[in-house]
Every structure is written in C-alpha cells, then in structure tokens.
Amino acid sequence: MANQHSQTTGSSATTLLDATVAAFDQGQAASPQEGMSLITDWFSSIKTNHFTGDLVEPLTHLHDELKTGEPSPQRLQQLLNELADKTDKAAPKAEGDLQSRLQTLATALRNFAGQISTAV
After folding, report:
1. Which domain holds residue 38?
2. pLDDT digits (tens, 9 = 90+) for 39-98
C-alpha cells in the first residue's frame, strides 16, 4: 500500500479514492504508518474539496489514534465507522462518479471496521 498511495499526493480525488478503497479491499491497511501516510494524503485532498469538510475531524482522530503506535482496536472500529458515516453523508454533495466512489469508500471503511471487531 505504501507505494500505491504515496503516488497519489496531489493527484485527483478519484485517484485517491481508488487507492484507498483498493487498500482496504486488499487487506493492506494494517500498518499504522501506512494509515497515517494515507490520512495525510486525504488532508491534502480535503483542502480542495468543499463537500468533504466534515471528514477532517474523524480523520484527525484516526490519525492521532494510529500515531500512538498501539492503537486500540475498539477505538479504530469506532473511528472507521464514524468516518464511513460522514463519507456517506458527503457523497450526495459530490459531483459525477465521485458520489459512487465515496459510497464505495464508506462501504470499505465499514467492512474494515468489521474485520477489526472480529480480530479482537
């Protein structure tokens, strides 16, 4: 995943969405360092997308939890579900195929949160 998302810095929102969904679908989003790097890419993208402003807070909390080095599985699950909910709410405000991509991302976040809960 590290190479996959580091190339998306400054790229279109579509590329970042696709890289994020692929990371979760392939089960590669397990490293806290990779997660923090991906979140940093999202912070850069959010600055240019007015409809994603509500994602800043849950992303910040998720970043902070990953930064501890020993993230709580329960807290990660809670934050991923919160991020999924806010992503779902942002989707209708997006244009074109970004709507469906954001909905796909929300589903991937929930699925990953579910995997965390079964691993605990």
Report:
1. 2-119
2. 777 777 776 666 677 888 888 999 899 888 888 999 999 999 999 999 999 888 888 888
Q: Give the distance between the most distant pair of CA atoms in the chain.
A: 39
How far is CA 37 from each of CA 1, 7, 17, rounded to the nearest angstrom?
A: 10, 11, 14
Cα 75 to Cα 100: distance, rounded to the nearest angstrom: 27
Phi and psi at 104, nearest 5°, equal: -65, -40
Burial 95-108 (b: 16+ CB within 10 A, else e): eeebeebbbbbbbb
46: amino acid identity, one letter = I
Residue with tokens 């989003």: 29
Query: How many Å apart are CA 80 and CA 63, to the nearest integer?
Result: 11
Whole-angstrom distance, CA of residue 58 vs CA of residue 49 = 16
Q: Is 70 helix (H, G, I), strand (E, B) or coil?
A: coil
**Looking at 42-120, which runs of residues are DSSP E strands?**
none
- Pull the structure tokens for residue 97: 């195929």
Domain count across the chain: 1
